[in-house]
Amino acid sequence: MAGTFPKGFIWGTATAAHQVEGGNTASDLWLMEMAKDSIFAEPSGDACDHYHRCEQDIALLKGLGFDCYRFSIEWARVEPEEGFFSKAALDHYRRMIAACHAMRVIPMVTFHHFTAPLWFTRDGGWENPKSVDRFARYCEVAGRALGDLITFACTINEANIPIMVTMMRRAVGIGGGSKRERALAEAARLSGGEPGKFSPYLSGNGIVAAPNLIAAHRKGYETLKPLIDGKVGITLALNNFQAEAGGEELFKTSDHAVNGQFLESVKGDDYVGVQTYTRVRFGKDGVLPPPEGCERTQMGYEFYPEALEATIRQAAKVSGCPVMVTENGIGTEDDTRRIAYTQRALEGVLRCIADGIDVRGYIHWSMMDNFEWLEGYRPKFGLVEVDRTTQSRKPKPSAYWLGDVAKRNALG
Ligand code: BGC
């Protein structure tokens, strides 16, 4: 299917600080990655050394044809100890955002992308109601330092993913079970915190964290709004939930807990960021595995690019906000499958636009191969390959293909 996107449609690629910068030593995950018997496949270490190479990386994405870069500023660098704000870290991010403008790249800046300062997580993370004011204070300081240069601000990346992971952990037993509990107890001990309190974003109790995350976004939004010279929103992990026979009830309650309540809470925001990778099917006894014989990605997900069309429709309908696709992509060693996946996902975007849905842009995850959390560096989500021994970058055919779509603002 061919088609043209609306004039001014934004084309970008995304990264997140911890996954690409390297040396995020004041963060909660650094401690967990380095611990003996870590639940992480390997530590993030130097990552892609993006902290020092960001300007070349922005130039690379611009050269490929993209006009937007979504990245995150790292809270653990900006506020490595509670109440101590690093002017040097803020200056770094200011230079980085200025470099985007100098290269005519729209900066989309995420304030929290999974990692947090160790002090925050040691004291209960998002399970602690104090998280709301702590996050707002950080937004205020970072917003004052950087806001005049920010075109799109995103408070929290995938504020609904902690509850989704917790529910999945219970439904299908993912997430390491007792190994995870032992790792959290060890992290509490190593960080000098109270046993039972150490709560990282993806490994804590997402059901307890959910109301705090919703409140933190609201407070962060109100704090940032007057400081940002642009739009403010949130991004949500929206997998396409589907009910199979007998799974209707479970689908309904899960869809509301994971997707609906968050989409309802962002009504009136400048935009909502949709992040979609696959579908999740509910049967009468719980979440169903991907259909037998289907193609699977490196993450074990079903290859199902049509999910994006469904989640854009859901996000627009429930929130009423303009939609930005802020993440969509695939973990694969076979770059031809990345092109096939993205082509089909973009066809879905075109169908949404043809139906009058206000979709403002498409940002691919990820600009480059990077640290995929628990899985380490094995899954390859990048448009650009990174040789981590030399830190050299090599665009894959998908990078040229999608860059060309971006330049022409058209598919096919
Ligand atoms: C996250 C990214 C992650 C990607 C691929 C999203 O949930 O925002 O940090 O790398 O999915 O798994």
Would you write up a description of this structure?
There is one protein chain. This protein has 412 residues and is an alpha/beta fold. It has one domain: TIM Barrel. The protein has helices at 17-20, 28-34, 50-64, 75-78, 87-102, 118-122, 131-146, 161-172, 177-190, 206-224, 248-265, 307-319, 335-354, 397-408; strands at 3-4, 10-14, 68-72, 106-112, 152-157, 231-237, 240-243, 271-276, 279-283, 286-287, 323-328, 359-365, 384-387, 392-395, 410-411. The strands form four sheets. It has an eight-stranded parallel beta barrel with strand order 2-3-4-5-6-8-11-12, surrounded by six helices. Helix 7 (131-146) packs parallel to helix 10, helix 12 packs parallel to helix 13 (335-354) and helix 13 (335-354) runs parallel beside helix 14 (397-408). The radius of gyration is 20 Å and the shape is globular.
List its salient traits.
binds beta-D-glucopyranose; 412 residues; 8-stranded parallel β-barrel; alpha/beta; TIM Barrel; 3-stranded mixed sheet
Concise summary:
This protein has one domain (3-411): Glycosidases (TIM Barrel), CATH 3.20.20.80. The protein is 42% helix and 17% strand.
